[in-house]
Sequence to fold (467 residues):
Amino acid sequence: MSQQNAELLKRISKLVKQNQELIEQNEKLNKETERLQDELENLKEILSELKKKGAVYEEKELEAPKTLKFKMVTVLFANIHGFSKISDDMDAEALMDELDTVLFHFDSILKKYKIQKIKTIGDSYMAAGGIPIKNITNPVQVVLAALEMQHYLDEYQKNADKEKRIWDIKMGIHTGPVTANIIGKKKIAYDIKGDTVNIATRMESAADVGKLLLSVMTNELVKEFFVCEYYGKLPVKYKGDLEMFTVKGLRPEFSINGEGLVPNDMFETKFKLIQFTDIQEIILDKLEKELPKFLYYHNVKHTVDVVTEVELIGWAEGCTDEEILILKTAGLFHDAGHTIAYDNHEDLGCGLAREFLPKYGYTEEQIEKICEIIMSTKLPPKPKNLLEAIICDSDLDYLGRSDMIPVSNTLFKELAEQNKITSFNDWNKLQVKFISGHQYFTETARNLREVNKQKQIERIKKLITED
Fold:
């Protein structure tokens, strides 16, 4: 064996030993950082008190490390095994190149699932879902990424000569809160710490080679998508025994050909129904901040009402999961155009949907259906199919509710401020005419609202005075 290869083998052997040392050092540094952070906060309080008391001193602003707190992050800790199988006749440089190739591909998998790489320490690899953008889907995305990593390494080994098949992997995944320190200015990186990180690391240590382990917390969040089996318990200081589960793959009904590897359309729909919570939070926040103040009726509450109602009527009318997803998304965007202009807000809402939804994996076909449903809410409503009928009934659901008159008063106030209606008496006449000519299109809405709607007509007629 050449001297160069011998030197490389020594480096690899040293790297293995350093790996655990670096992890231990990292844990110590994290504890020291927490201690210094506490001291810094105490100093700030002291300086603040001195300033209040009029003490004269030259104050230099203390810059605390930029930190973010996340309530739900899924941490993946992986360890690639293989160095112990290296023999003297192997090409050490080539083996290092192989490891680099594997890690580079892992990076691309993380990018695919929008997961943040945290760091690589030798043959150990850490990543986190839900950083820096908070989301509710990160446990599912991290498990998908881990399965793909596992599969990639298996396939990589199959293509190698038998005697060179030295690589294997074991992984631990845990979901919980973390604190993230932001590192760098030009190229941002994150250093995370907390019990969630420590538990994921310990779970990887407890796993057998080739196993992917989930904590009971992560398992609860992903078990409807994956085949998971009980693996054992991990003793955790101050927390008792933590149950662990091993992941076999996707459930057959959620994978192409039932093989448990590649998600199918049913999975994508189910995933998007969960992801909808994140989308809804973003859009409602946008409406809260950007809707004009004079929108007393077409406000955030109305959008939430429509999203809730399309789901209620949709299930009652026998819609599929994908149709419910389409309906809820259309309901969320149907009045979003009001953030741009009052008139033709339906067209503007469609524009926002076409711009926003591709980022969340909606197909062109789904987006076009959503836009067609939004456009069907233009008055007077003329739905062409069941989904359009459902949103039209949901949009005017208040006509048959007990709170119809106070709700309609908010619409009058909204129109009056824009000089679109002249008097309350004229408004009531307009309402009687509109409600008398209105019909609910779905059987569910007719059963729920039609009787009460007729009572509202009689109540409004009593409010009208003759000129």
About this structure: The CA atoms of residues 285 and 426 lie 35 Å apart.
